[in-house]
Design a protein that fits this description.
Largest sheet: 6 strands, parallel
Number of strands: 9
Shape: globular
Order of helices and strands: HHHEHEHHEHEHEEHEHEHE
Radius of gyration: 21 Å
Structural class: alpha/beta
CATH class of the largest domain: Alpha Beta
Distance between the termini: 41 Å
Strand content: 5-15%
């Protein structure tokens, strides 16, 4: 049976167990073509090799519950704040805005008294809708303003200096508009690496991934977006949505109503981690 020739990626010296596993997998895949039976590929090696060859990121992450646990019993949640060790918490997050539909979303969140975390994008969003950025930051619901880069590049594919420019420009503009520099960022497409971690540490930014995605960038069907979100929701989860797409904002009221019925309490990402404080550079993923 003919086998497809895999591309030969650069082979850096491994620095951790994950990289070593991936490299072994790649070598084994190559060996299959020429030496039948000699290359034994474990499930871990195959998965890691596929990940590396496809260009996807591999990283170590910390769950919200682990972050809270590491804070220790001596550190308490602030008075009046939600304690997610006790409450059934979930974080609602929005990427890629602000946009024309964001004010409608803010009205829904205000009506439902739900805080959210907004990972804001610079070009054609922050620069076009500065008043909306201020409205997010000033809302009584306590929304969290976070960084989603300026032009949405795949950060592992650009230079360290470019990563720094993308994040710093967004940081500076958000501070100018809101008076506060964000402490959270979300790498576009969830792609990160050691270089991104290094820059995030310098800039005081923690990296935030997600556990639930409706893939709302592929559909305008609000009912489907709601269903996908509810099907994946779980305690300590982080929901990823985009307030820039046609079907998303209309799906939010139903998502909130149903999750409240299921006993969930909505919190920002920072409150989901509390009493732990987000550590710059670290990746948080449920």
């Amino acid at each position: 049976m003919a086998l497809t020739t895999l591309p030969k990626p650069p082979m850096p010296m491994p620095r951790n167990k994950k990289q070593t596993t991936a490299i072994r997998g790649i070598r084994a895949i190559r060996g299959i073509r020429g030496i039948r039976g000699r290359a034994t590929l474990t499930g871990a090696s195959l998965a890691a090799a596929t990940l590396l060859l496809s260009g996807c990121s591999s990283y170590d992450s910390t769950t919200p519950s682990d972050a809270r646990g590491k804070a220790g019993d001596q550190v308490k949640v602030a008075a009046g704040a939600v304690d997610c060790n006790e409450a059934k918490c979930i974080a609602l997050t929005f990427d890629g805005g602000p946009g024309p539909k964001t004010p409608e979303l803010l009205k829904t969140l205000k009506k439902e008294k739900v805080p959210a975390t907004f990972f804001l994008l610079g070009k054609k969003h922050i620069d076009r809708y500065p008043d909306t950025v201020r409205a997010i930051a000033d809302a009584d619901e306590g929304h969290e303003v976070a960084n989603h880069t300026w032009t949405h590049p795949r950060l592992p594919d650009v230079s360290e200096d470019e990563v720094r420019r993308e994040l710093s420009r967004t940081q500076d503009e958000l501070e100018r508009l809101t008076g506060t520099k964000p402490t959270l960022m979300r790498p576009p497409q969830g792609r990160t690496d050691d270089k991104v971690e290094k820059v995030c540490k310098e800039l005081g930014l923690s990296q935030v991934m997600w556990s639930t995605t409706a893939k709302d960038y592929k559909t305008n069907d609000s009912a489907l977006i709601q269903k996908r979100t509810l099907d994946q929701a779980g305690r300590d989860g982080i929901i990823l949505l985009h307030d820039i797409y046609k079907g998303t904002v209309p799906a939010v009221p139903g998502i909130i109503t149903e999750l409240k019925k299921q006993g969930y309490t909505f919190v920002t990402v920072t409150d989901l981690l509390a009493p732990a404080k987000p550590e710059p550079g670290k990746v948080y993923k449920p």
